[in-house]
């Protein structure tokens, strides 16, 4: 077992840490998956109030960014005629700005305007009868693409160019992990582990003084396991080992076949999520170059020449302790 440990402990995280508090667990369903919270409960914490606040926050995010709800803001944007401007609420604007930034930095490997391609491959809200025809893919690629989006940062307005479908599933789940962590802090709980569908964020420490240990998903049996201390860190993984080849390359319109599991550590789950998606789209050599350039902590399992190979980025290698 290899361990990845942050180089420093955040002094602010120790300010309200207590050894004599119980752990409590909350869970539920959202975004077509499950959410889980494990939290160290201060004496005055109202667990029922925390759960209600989490439910309200989840509903708020879904009302804005759900690809599966026709009445969401995203759904209304996708149906709007060309030339329509939408004023974005803070959450949507934050996600959109991050999505456009990662899209630009990754050369379009991450693309928030990939919704029509996602639908054509049967990963959207409506079933699709079999693989899409080449003509349909070509049309979707012409109408989609983040370059067609006009976004005014000052007014936080986004323009529908016409026929473009947003899909924020490669970043919204991570954003929601961060949002639930913020809910917990607002309720007076600064030590917790938050997870939605495999994307995780750890705040502070456990009451026993340990960090929030999580195992990076390692579906290849010959690769040594990697356990991460999520102390003020998040981790997100993109790949095809659970749901099949559902990641679509925005540039070709085709499913990604080489990426088994790409995990990214970051201080924000939102950015870990987006970068994991972008890196999983790229072939190994450009993926590694991008991870190095952006100084990202990455563990990638990719298929090469009939075998699964592991790559650990320099930023992650600094944190990894090999077994004696």
UniProtKB/TrEMBL annotation:
<comment type="similarity">
    <text>Belongs to the ApbE family.</text>
</comment>
<dbReference type="GO" id="GO:0016740">
    <property type="term" value="F:transferase activity"/>
</dbReference>
<keyword id="KW-0274">FAD</keyword>
<keyword id="KW-0460">Magnesium</keyword>
<dbReference type="InterPro" id="IPR003374">
    <property type="entry name" value="ApbE-like_sf"/>
</dbReference>
<keyword id="KW-0285">Flavoprotein</keyword>
<keyword id="KW-0808">Transferase</keyword>
<dbReference type="Pfam" id="PF02424">
    <property type="entry name" value="ApbE"/>
</dbReference>
<protein>
    <recommendedName>
        <fullName>FAD:protein FMN transferase</fullName>
        <ecNumber>2.7.1.180</ecNumber>
    </recommendedName>
</protein>
<dbReference type="InterPro" id="IPR024932">
    <property type="entry name" value="ApbE"/>
</dbReference>
<keyword id="KW-0479">Metal-binding</keyword>
């Amino acid at each position: 077992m290899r361990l990845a440990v942050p180089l420093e402990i955040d002094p602010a995280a120790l300010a309200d840490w207590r050894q004599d508090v119980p752990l409590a667990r909350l869970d539920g369903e959202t975004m077509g998956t499950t959410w889980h919270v494990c939290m160290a409960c201060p004496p005055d914490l109202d667990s029922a109030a925390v759960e209600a606040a989490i439910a309200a926050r989840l509903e708020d995010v879904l009302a804005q960014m759900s690809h599966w709800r026709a009445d969401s803001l995203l759904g209304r944007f996708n149906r709007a005629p060309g030339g329509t401007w939408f004023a974005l609420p803070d959450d949507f604007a934050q996600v959109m700005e991050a999505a456009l930034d990662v899209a630009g930095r990754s050369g379009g490997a991450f693309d928030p305007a990939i919704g029509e391609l996602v639908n054509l491959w049967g990963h959207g809200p409506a079933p699709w009868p079999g693989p899409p025809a080449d003509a349909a893919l070509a049309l979707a690629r012409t109408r989609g693409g983040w370059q067609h989006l006009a976004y005014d940062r000052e007014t936080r307005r986004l323009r529908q160019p016409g026929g473009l479908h947003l899909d924020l599933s490669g970043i919204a789940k991570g954003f929601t992990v961060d949002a639930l962590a913020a809910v917990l802090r607002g309720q007076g709980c600064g030590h917790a582990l938050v997870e939605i569908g495999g994307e995780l964020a750890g705040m502070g420490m456990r009451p026993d003084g340990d960090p929030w240990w999580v195992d990076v998903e390692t579906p290849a049996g010959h690769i040594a396991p990697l356990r991460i201390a999520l102390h003020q860190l998040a981790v997100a993984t993109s790949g095809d080992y659970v749901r099949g080849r559902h990641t679509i390359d925005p540039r070709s319109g085709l499913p990604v076949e080489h990426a088994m599991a790409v995990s990214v550590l970051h201080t924000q789950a939102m950015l870990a999520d987006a970068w994991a998606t972008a890196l999983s789209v790229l072939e190994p050599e450009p993926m590694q170059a991008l991870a190095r350039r952006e100084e990202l902590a990455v563990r990638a399992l990719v298929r090469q020449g009939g075998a699964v190979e592991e790559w650990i980025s320099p930023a992650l290698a600094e944190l990894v302790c090999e077994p004696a």
